[in-house]
């Protein structure tokens, strides 16, 4: 089996009002379940790592599918919450670029609404390489809620309207990615690359 990198792109704001093109609303868990189903990872013994797990809400829902839950986050307070909610899990305070697990450890590595807060593409590349190192052969890496540069202006204009015409400045402070960046990375590493729209309308193979 070949390792698959799945990118769910677009911008997914939390304000519940009609968004412009490229600014979509989605349930990231639905996206993850869709990925697991379409890649054949439907058993209940998955070893799962979440990069930027926060308080563990995402992992808690995935708990029935997992024999081992692992999460890292830069916030000690958030990790403490994870440990209380999932005492059998493995949680640690760690920056994304510093993850250091044994190679080929996980069936699924995911990161939800985290990559856009990385400082630059070099940092992003380091994290992607760590993901691949720690994925089993045939495993799946899933990056959700990725800010697509194609829709940056749409989003900023929409956000400006949402806050009453005030300038949004650099809000939110985040990176906007070109899809080609992930395509080239996948080609270089000789892994499958799959792109899905943020609204999870169905897979688009690239």
Report what the structure shows.
This protein has about 210 residues and is an alpha/beta fold. It has one domain: Rossmann fold (3-Layer(aba) Sandwich), CATH 3.40.50. About 30% of the residues lie in helices and about 25% in strands. It has an 8-stranded mixed β-sheet, with helices on both faces. Helix 3 links the parallel strand 3 and strand 4. The protein starts with a strand and ends with a strand. The C terminus is likely disordered.
Provide the CATH superfamily: Vaccinia Virus protein VP39
Strand content: 25-35%
Please estimate the helix content. Answer: 25-40%
Low-confidence stretches: 13-17, 22-26, 200-206
Estimated structural class: alpha/beta
- The number of helical runs is 6
Termini, distance in Å?
A: 18 Å
The CATH architecture would be: 3-Layer(aba) Sandwich
For the residues shown, what is the average pLDDT?
A: 78
Provide the domain count: 1
* Spatial extent as radius of gyration: 17 Å
Write the H/E string, N to C: EHEHEHEEHEHHEE
Q: Give the overall shape, derived from the CA principal axes.
A: globular
Assembly of the depicted chains = single chain
> Biggest β-sheet, characterized?
8 strands, mixed
> Which fold name corresponds to the CATH topology?
Rossmann fold
Strand order within the widest beta sheet: 4-3-2-5-6-1-7-8
Kindly summarize this structure in a few lines.
The protein is an alpha/beta fold and 206 residues long. The chain has helices at 28-38, 57-62, 76-85, 121-134, 152-162, 179-189, and strands spanning 4-9, 46-51, 66-73, 90-93, 106-112, 135-146, 192-197, 203-205. An 8-stranded mixed β-sheet has the order 4-3-2-5-6-1-7-8, with helices on both faces.
